[in-house]
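Suppose a classmate hands you a notebook page containing two proteins, each written out with its sequence and a corresponding row of structure tokens. How would you begin to make sense of it? This section walks through that situation. The first entry is reproduced here exactly as it would appear on such a page.
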Amino acid sequence: MTAPAPTAVLTATLARIRLNPRSRDVQRDLRDARELHRTMMRLLPPSDASVARQAHGLLFRLEAEPRAAHIHLQTTSTLHPDRLPSDYGHVRTKDLTPMFSALREGIGVRYRIVANPTKRISLPPEEGKRGPVIPLTGAEADQWWHRKATEAGLHLHTLLPTPLPAARSPRGKDNRPRMRHDLIRFDGTATVTDAEALTRAVLTGIGRGKPYGAGLLSLAPA
């Protein structure tokens, strides 16, 4: 009898980019979420532009700290930090295999996610089109995260929401429309209820706005 093939270990790489505030490229990217997305994509191998982010499992978020700003970037592909502009910042990487291997039902974790909580407004059927997507705030945003966390295999114990500046992009010279994604950071503690669902959520992200700095779920031991 042929032995079953071993189960592939799902993993990813996390990069922490300490941004150089004097870099003109950094200044541009912090003003324009579309430009920041393009810069992050430069770190990855070439791919079909229509599915490149998903193909490489690219997720990231901006962390504005008192002394410096950082970008936390996660990918399932090989990273190429040398493709960043020379004065962009300092990059450190970490293999997330040990974290995924340690995920078990019942363990406690600390979590952080910068998310874009939204809902779609329902229109009467006779309108013949889908309703607009609107951002959620306050209790509605908290309820959104509770629901998404449950679907992702987490039972939340604590939740601290922090509204953040929106990810924006101005109207471009090519007449591209303005873009805005409202962002809220959720921090807290939780218990893992479904390790497989949680692994998928970490690898694929949660909610809308993933190309522009939303959806990356980070975990640490509680």
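The notebook's second entry, a different protein, reads as follows.
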Amino acid sequence: MKLTLRPEWRLYPLASFFGVLDLKSGVVVALLFALLNKVAGVYGLIATLTGAGGSFAQISLYLYSTVALVAIVLGLKAVQREDAKQTLYFAHFFFFDHALSTAWVVWFAIVWWFQTPHDGRRQANSAAQEAMMHAAPPHEPMTDAQRVAAAMAIWQQEKGFAAAIIIMSWLSKFYLALLIYSYATHLRKGSYRALPLSRSSPLIPSSVPAHYDDTALGLGEDEDVDDFYRVPLRTPVGHKPGQGSAGSLADFVSAPRGPGKSALGNGNGDIVFDADERR
């Protein structure tokens, strides 16, 4: 059983990146930033393995970022090749990555906003942090009440800005997921080159290989694809009056002969020469 949304419930695919960039260019630029984010996770894993320390959640996230880095590289190649099928698979993966990142951010927000005391006490999570604490220059001693009051004043100023950054990052990644889905949808429908900011296709009909499928998905005839997405890239070849086609010769040969005799089949054996050939 195939589960699909009704046509009236489906989101209309985006046509550009904020109305200023081509859809493909916007996806590539956004994926480069996502690639940089995953590279930072790899550096976090290296720091953890070299003694920086970290919780199990942090280490698992660093390991996942390493695997996701490879997936983003492959997805970036599929986007540049305009491969509709692989781009759709990558869109599914990116949405899964966004959902996983959302769960981790929610867990981090609960721990940081509600479980962390924010009382100004120094905490060392590793030997390197402890060494940095001892190497810090001396400061004026403070009582516990003064330290808590100063730390809470800083926290009141920073927590709103931190929440705004997290929300903006979440919305940006959600928009990027919609962007990739829109790009994959346009590739599957064959409408990407018809978008206002898209460049014309460099391919010509003669350069299309003979084994190229009728749809951008490259699926077999036995696979059931919704007509909303499956749009043929080539019009069927057929003979119409007033239009030339590849099937015209076959139609001419297979056409029934009329009752009249052809002028070429008189059988009189005479050969007619042109006036120029007699000279």
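A careful reader of the second entry would note: The first helix runs from residue 23 to 52.
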